[in-house]
Write a structure and sequence with these properties.
The complex is a heterodimer of chains A (229) and B (225). By secondary structure, chain A is mostly helical. Helix content of chain A is 81%, strand content 0%. Chain A contains six helices and no strands. Chain A has helices at 4-26, 39-67, 70-102, 110-131, 137-165, 179-228. Chain A starts with a helix and ends with a helix. In chain B, helix 1 crosses helix 5. Chain B has 225 residues and is mainly alpha-helical. The radius of gyration of chain B is 18 Å and the shape is globular. The chains are: A mainly alpha (229), B mainly alpha (225). At the A-B interface, helix 4 and helix 5 of A face helix 6, helix 7 and helix 8 of B.
């Protein structure tokens, strides 16, 4: 597994480079929005990756609660952290795209609001992990992760109804998407997913190592106390 | 009655008696809500028409902040004299303890709402244009939504450093759909422009989902080592 990491890292770097080249040069320029539309390839791919990582977080939390495996807890933590980073990218690139196209930075549109609420839930998850006393952290965090996941459909329906009552913001026309754009989009989607999973894996390894070091240090200090007596 | 309902009742009565004698949570909560109402009415000086639109939001934000005061007291009270540890080692079912705490908080926050709502009506010159009886349903369901998750997260934040600040940080993001439903339902009833039915259904769903989830996980949280 350890040896696979550099190989996968290089493969992901190449794939990301290719995806960036495709998005910036190969993909055709969008008719009405112009060059700024190219942000779409990063924006949507990041959103997908964040969703994927939050899903991993949920599965790892359930696995932790059922089997109490510390590795599942480390994975839950790593995926939540990296997921929040990708979610932040979505929330930053969204307004950059919206401003020239819609004329506003932010609107309480369905997907925007859902992303923001997701971000808030997972930031509170990370805060809980940070503030909680170490022994009980995994259980509390896993329970909060499950509560957060239960909340998502409720957030979805509440915003959906909230929006159907209020005036809809002016969106870029629906229309169909050029197949070349679609291809570039999928290349980016795969590249970002690989990148996200790779970073998550690195963070996971780091966390596992960190815990091993802490355990060893605790054992060593115990032994020292014993030998000094 | 010695079953779990009896345990719930005994714990609830104990909490009510404690609160009746000390009035810690009640005083703090009432004064806090009063301050919020006064500060809001200074900050916006709305006409009757405008206030009908914004009152739903103001009322529920004030109640949300005030209920955090009561929720923080819930478990902190049991830390003195290691009462919580005694609960942990006792064979009493964890859920009856949880339900007692939820009902206790529900009564405190409902009492607060009953006292503060007339003030809101006076300050904001409110009159419901829609079916007013629905406000009672929304208040009950909304309070339950805040209190059931609040009690649960208070038990979680008890295990953290700086627990007083941790509770709102955990509670508010999860409560967003419930809060949106309460605010929108209240505005719908006050303005009478559209029906509050969808929001009431959403609140019922929220209450059911999180009551069941809390009852399912509470024992785990109480006994977490």
């Amino acid at each position: 597994m350890k040896r696979a990491f550099p190989i996968l890292a290089i493969a992901t770097a190449v794939l990301l480079g290719y995806a960036t080249y495709q998005a910036l040069w190969v993909a055709p320029t969008e008719q009405t929005m112009g060059e700024v539309q190219r942000i779409f390839y990063y924006h949507v791919s990041s959103a997908w990756t964040a969703g994927l990582l939050f899903f991993i977080n949920f599965v790892a939390s359930v696995v932790y609660l059922v089997w109490r495996s510390p590795k599942a807890d480390a994975l839950a933590m790593a995926s939540a952290e990296v997921g929040v980073v990708f979610c932040t990218i979505v929330l930053v690139t969204g307004p950059i795209w919206a401003r020239p196209v819609w004329g506003i930075w932010w609107t309480w549109d369905m997907r925007l609001t859902l992303t923001l609420v997701l971000w808030l839930i997972y930031v509170s998850y990370l805060l809980l992990r940070r503030f909680s006393a170490s022994g009980q952290t995994p259980v509390m965090a896993a329970v909060l992760a499950i509560f957060g996941t239960l909340d998502i459909p409720l957030v979805y329906f509440s915003i959906w109804f909230f929006r159907t009552q209020h005036p809809q913001p002016v969106m870029g026309g629906g229309g169909s998407i050029d197949h070349r754009m679609l291809r570039v989009f999928f290349v980016n989607l795969i590249a970002f997913s690989c990148f996200g999973l790779l970073v998550c894996w690195a963070r996971y390894r780091l966390e596992v190592l960190h815990r091993e070091v802490e355990e060893t240090q605790a054992l060593e200090s115990l032994l020292e106390v014993r030998s000094s007596r | 009655m010695t079953g779990s309902a009896g345990l719930t009742r005994a714990t609830l009565l104990k909490d009510l008696r404690l609160e009746w004698r000390s009035k810690d949570a009640t005083n703090a909560m009432l004064f806090f809500a009063l301050l919020v109402v006064v500060i809001f009415s200074f900050s916006f000086d709305p006409t009757a028409e405008e206030s009908r639109r914004i009152a739903g939001g103001l009322i529920w934000v004030a109640f949300l902040f005030a209920s955090v005061v009561a929720l923080n007291q819930t478990w902190a009270r049991e830390l003195r004299n290691q009462v919580l540890d005694a609960y942990r080692v006792s064979p009493a079912p964890a859920n009856s303890l949880f339900l007692a705490k939820v009902w206790g908080n529900f009564l405190f926050v409902s009492g607060l709402e009953a006292l503060m709502t007339p003030l809101f009506v006076v300050f904001y010159n409110l009159r419901a244009l829609g079916p007013g009886y629905q406000l009672l349903i929304v208040a009950g369901l909304g309070t339950w939504a805040l209190v059931v998750n609040g009690t649960f997260f208070a038990a979680i934040s008890l295990r953290t450093r700086s627990r007083e600040i941790m509770l709102p940080l955990l509670l508010f993001p999860i409560s967003i759909p419930a809060l949106l439903a309460m605010v929108e339902a209240t505005s719908a009833i006050l303005t009478g422009e559209y029906s509050a039915k969808f929001w009431i259904v959403l609140l019922v769903t929220y209450d059911l989902v999180f009551t069941m989830a809390s009852l399912f996980f509470f024992e785990l949280v109480l006994h977490a080592e």
